[in-house]
Amino acid sequence: MRSDGRRADETRPVKITANYNKHAEGSVLIEVGDTKVICTATIEERVPPFMKGQGKGWVTAEYSMLPRATSVRNQRESARGKLGGRTMEIQRLIGRALRSVVQLDALGERSVTLDCDVIQADGGTRTTSITGAFVAMAIAIDKLATDKKLSRFPIIDFLGSVSVGVIQEQALLDLNYDEDSKAKVDMNVVMTGSGKFVEVQGTGEESPFSRKELDELLLLAELGIQSMISEQEKVLGVISERIRGAAHAASRV
Amino acid sequence: MRSDGRRADETRPVKITANYNKHAEGSVLIEVGDTKVICTATIEERVPPFMKGQGKGWVTAEYSMLPRATSVRNQRESARGKLGGRTMEIQRLIGRALRSVVQLDALGERSVTLDCDVIQADGGTRTTSITGAFVAMAIAIDKLATDKKLSRFPIIDFLGSVSVGVIQEQALLDLNYDEDSKAKVDMNVVMTGSGKFVEVQGTGEESPFSRKELDELLLLAELGIQSMISEQEKVLGVISERIRGAAHAASRV
Amino acid sequence: MRSDGRRADETRPVKITANYNKHAEGSVLIEVGDTKVICTATIEERVPPFMKGQGKGWVTAEYSMLPRATSVRNQRESARGKLGGRTMEIQRLIGRALRSVVQLDALGERSVTLDCDVIQADGGTRTTSITGAFVAMAIAIDKLATDKKLSRFPIIDFLGSVSVGVIQEQALLDLNYDEDSKAKVDMNVVMTGSGKFVEVQGTGEESPFSRKELDELLLLAELGIQSMISEQEKVLGVISERIRGAAHAASRV
Amino acid sequence: MRSDGRRADETRPVKITANYNKHAEGSVLIEVGDTKVICTATIEERVPPFMKGQGKGWVTAEYSMLPRATSVRNQRESARGKLGGRTMEIQRLIGRALRSVVQLDALGERSVTLDCDVIQADGGTRTTSITGAFVAMAIAIDKLATDKKLSRFPIIDFLGSVSVGVIQEQALLDLNYDEDSKAKVDMNVVMTGSGKFVEVQGTGEESPFSRKELDELLLLAELGIQSMISEQEKVLGVISERIRGAAHAASRV
Amino acid sequence: MRSDGRRADETRPVKITANYNKHAEGSVLIEVGDTKVICTATIEERVPPFMKGQGKGWVTAEYSMLPRATSVRNQRESARGKLGGRTMEIQRLIGRALRSVVQLDALGERSVTLDCDVIQADGGTRTTSITGAFVAMAIAIDKLATDKKLSRFPIIDFLGSVSVGVIQEQALLDLNYDEDSKAKVDMNVVMTGSGKFVEVQGTGEESPFSRKELDELLLLAELGIQSMISEQEKVLGVISERIRGAAHAASRV
Amino acid sequence: MRSDGRRADETRPVKITANYNKHAEGSVLIEVGDTKVICTATIEERVPPFMKGQGKGWVTAEYSMLPRATSVRNQRESARGKLGGRTMEIQRLIGRALRSVVQLDALGERSVTLDCDVIQADGGTRTTSITGAFVAMAIAIDKLATDKKLSRFPIIDFLGSVSVGVIQEQALLDLNYDEDSKAKVDMNVVMTGSGKFVEVQGTGEESPFSRKELDELLLLAELGIQSMISEQEKVLGVISERIRGAAHAASRV
């Protein structure tokens, strides 16, 4: 029995509030337990220099935490004058993960920037950001589709993410902060709606882990991600249909 | 008649949600029309180097906007590697304003850091931040008082702020973004509950203004600030009593 | 009686030496008491990116203090690697103030950069910079006019600035450093030759101030600024005529 | 058949030259095919602030590439003024991996800094750095042991790393640069001498991967890492005995 | 005949105004032709970390140019966020040169910082800075001596500097900006009052130079530096005696 | 007799390994005693902005030391976020020196970047970098010539460099680190194959030096540089002929 009463294979309650921000092309407030992240998607009619002239779009992400997202105040990276390694690692991960389910050529020479701002942290902020950013991105890209700016719908699969870990020999799904700081093994997994892996990042700094533990963690992650994706489907409504349609079309190529 | 139907001397609806964040010692979500700011207050048992050894506390503020707080995405200052002039100017203003109603010696060698993060902007973000930060600060300092860490209550007055401006010869209270961008004269005013001025910052870059216009703007500002302060009193409840008590004690010295 | 023997409504001696620098298009050394600032105006045949293609010019300012302008050596901002908040605030103020009396469309797609370098500080460096920069700007723009590069003279009013403050219930004009550090209320005012306000920045961090005090301070400021502007007129000589002519023409539109 | 004639499960030739640098406490030049990395280990009698007073040591790493390590010259991060996200990610990975086989309390309040400088890159620079840095670290720590500065030998297992990937449905071991740029799936794995996982980082940005592919990649990685570790054992000679002894002692606790 | 009518072995007019700044412990305005530099000396009762606890003092320098010191406006290094290579090179040179004539142990654990700010540039700004900074330093250190804070006078020789160069096969003394930009060979020389070399920095980027040219340049430099030093002696008055006395004492050790 | 048994006028053993790096257009590993530097030359078909449109090329250099090139680990400049003054000074020197023997117009609108990375330091790293960089540059430019991209061979002389210094009244050639730290006078000299000076940088911070000492040092430097240049000729083989041919052609103009 976990400190908050959950079973080992149970995620915390998930709540996704769409269109949380009046300015952004797509936005959500995603809450996974006490972890709360505002994800906004911005569409811009230009791509970064290294993508110019290829007729393809780009998807990228930025991640930040408000100073009191955490129990102890963390100094702003803007005040320090540079991004920390953890931030860079996370925003590279989010961008890479989202790009795996978008056909960049179908997006045209546009970029989608996902801003993931953690307003309250309680473990799993990077995986929650990925799950939320997917929804914000889908809403924004759907507006492009509605405005007839796209030749075909570019998102070809759902994408969710959870963390898993091992505490006292026990594999657990969706660690909160308290559990995360006790875990000897910590793994973040990103998977598609069709059950394929996009990212597997497991770390056993405290204690190397066996193949058997790895297998257990991957199973739990799959379970948790399916549950995240069904929340996405609910909140996306008719947009979910378009994703499934695009997936179907892509699989026939 | 203004675009959103308000009278010239009317503020937008104000909503202050206290204890919005589970980690911070004090916190609010303040909404003034579509402008939304999360204000958190952090208490730390240390003061900056220039205040050390004086037996006094310090109050300071930081201000930031999420990238899509605005209609067009603004680049993160953390990514640019430095704070812009506007940000610095605003956070210096917020800190200075809050310190004007706190007796730093009554705080002890502690610092209160107010983080004002604009999650959606529609004009008046700096004045809204001041009004909200005051409440977050009062909640946090009240916890110190409750924990018997203070010899007397250090907040000796309420503090509210609004913007005022002149559009087509007409003085208006609490400009939204649309009005702000049309205003020839723009003024931010901070006042105490007892009706004294803490900051008056009027700018007529587009068009220098007369003494008569200045007088009209100051009257409107006073009106608006009284209304902000009555919202603060409501949400602070019993803490309001403590502020009034401290004000009374201070006035007798 | 003030420490240097002045009356409450008296400024320090003002001396403006024009053409102090052989390279700049316009330059002055301005001395207000022991405060000494070199102001140079640079004309460049280009505007910043955000102004491009509008057929209008731009006026901007930079402000800095030599390390030993002050009693205690202050570290160079170039060595610290960033501009401080105070510097940014001041240079934004100077640029904004100067733009209020320049018709940017009459300047053509050119920029005027005012560099205000304080070589000795004794209070009022920002207001002295504004008063001096106005003269340097007028000299530089007059050269453009002499060279027949302008369709009409773009400066439509004089512009002066002083600081005022309250010490022991007494409102005083043009504070020196010593007075400034004792003042409970501190206000910087910028006005035009025709007596309109361009900037009013009053701060009562130490002690909020009443409407009556505000009124007294504004009167003193007006007096002081008139005296600054008559110094400008003397040093500008025939250029003063051109400004008056442009003011007259502008008022008829 | 691969472009350089290797089998799918074959690594490139590995050469580890110990004591390559006369100043460092431990050093190697490691060559894996055309990838060449200088790894130096520096022992300092102090720990970073967050580790102070715990009686434990610290192991950390820095990673860099010479500008012409790569086919196209890459700009120095010192000239750009900041570390890129890739560099930060890699050096965090190297440090974390090395710490997993060191008992920090047995190190005493000392730090070991591993500098991994890629002088020529041809794929797998981060995994090669880990394999080489382990040897440099072992040499440096062994000197501490020889000097009787340690109560027990702190390295309790070997540590090696390889990259694996999928090209055209085929899982391959130890990708060179050419293969790496064609791979749809890319995975870096770090394992101990006793066959446990320390890091598993798999990315399918180009194409999500199945559980079956994951399993194949993990098997190849295990094979490759065993071969890296036997090179380490050869070059470490008698120091290998000490590691095995420490491993044995640790397993009995 | 040179453009300004000087002979090849003639310096421009030199004017040194002592005590130019009311705050600094020592200060001059030095003018060599149209090159004008404000040099201030700051005494602080502390030394940099690498000098602590040795009972010795430190002398260091900073160098900067106002934006319009030059014909074309140069961007502030504070705005660019970093010091350029030329600035660093010059300030290292100034500090090193001044230290060569100061007995650091006689200074006590104090530092002298020389700020050299070029307010107008016309060639030779670094050599003019050295000549001027020497005087500012002597005035400041003399105050320490007058205040009985020193066991003996620490400055043991005069120090002057000039530039020399070759234009069209002709060696010239004290190049102005115009000459400097035409010179094929450019040399900065620093010498003591007793005729020894402290720095010789000759560069023939445009055209390598012969031993014979080098010899001619060194002779001219010696001549020019003697003339700079006699200006220093005049302006220093009685302080010159103290330097000569210290030189005499030092030579007997 | 020197600590390593050399005579006063003897350099350490020199070894230049050409084509040390498989990616760079030109490269060497140069070893002078225990000082080891990797020099790579990169050809790019563009010039920096200030050289554009002149039909001429550019040669520039960057210099860095690996953290453990030195006896005590030095912090990376990339981690500190800026280049130090010493690095800037050295890389400016290397670039300037190399340009003195290249006819930039014969290079076409191309740039050659020399990266000098010190992998082990034992004195003379800047002079060794110049000697090695010359060879790397010659190899790279020769490839351009071989590819018929140049109208004539642009390198018109050899270029070598050594350090010299005075220890206990004795002038010594090619100081190692130990000697360098004891030297009262320290001089770096760069000369061409035809015996002309390109750079003379002598510093007597510890002790000003006489004209006689200067003369002795220059003689030793000439001797040492001749020996460096004969090593260059050996390793360059047939490319040496091309340089001699270009020198001959240039001397006839």
Short description:
The first copy, chain A, has 253 residues and is an alpha+beta fold. Chain A has helices at residues 77-80, 85-99, 104-107, 125-146, 177-182, 211-236, 238-251; strands at 14-18, 26-32, 35-44, 58-65, 111-120, 159-167, 170-173, 185-192, 197-203.
Characterise the protein shown here.
The structure is a homohexamer of 253-residue chains. With 253 residues, chain A is an alpha+beta fold. Chain A has a single domain, classed as Ribosomal Protein S5, domain 2, CATH 3.30.230. Chain A has 7 helices and 9 strands. The first copy, chain A, has helices at 77-80, 85-99, 104-107, 125-146, 177-182, 211-236, 238-251; strands spanning 14-18, 26-32, 35-44, 58-65, 111-120, 159-167, 170-173, 185-192, 197-203. In chain A, the strands form 2 sheets. Chain A has a 5-stranded mixed sheet. In chain A, strands 7-6-8-9 form a 4-stranded antiparallel sheet, with helices on both faces. The model of chain A has no long low-confidence stretch (mean pLDDT 96). At the E-F interface, helix 2, strand 8, strand 9 and helix 6 of E face helix 2, strand 8, strand 9 and helix 6 of F. Chains A, B, C, D, E, F: One of its GO terms (molecular function) is tRNA nucleotidyltransferase activity. Chains A, B, C, D, E, F: Keywords: Nucleotidyltransferase, RNA-binding, rRNA processing, Transferase, tRNA processing, tRNA-binding. Chains A, B, C, D, E, F: Homohexameric ring arranged as a trimer of dimers. Chains A, B, C, D, E, F: Belongs to the RNase PH family.
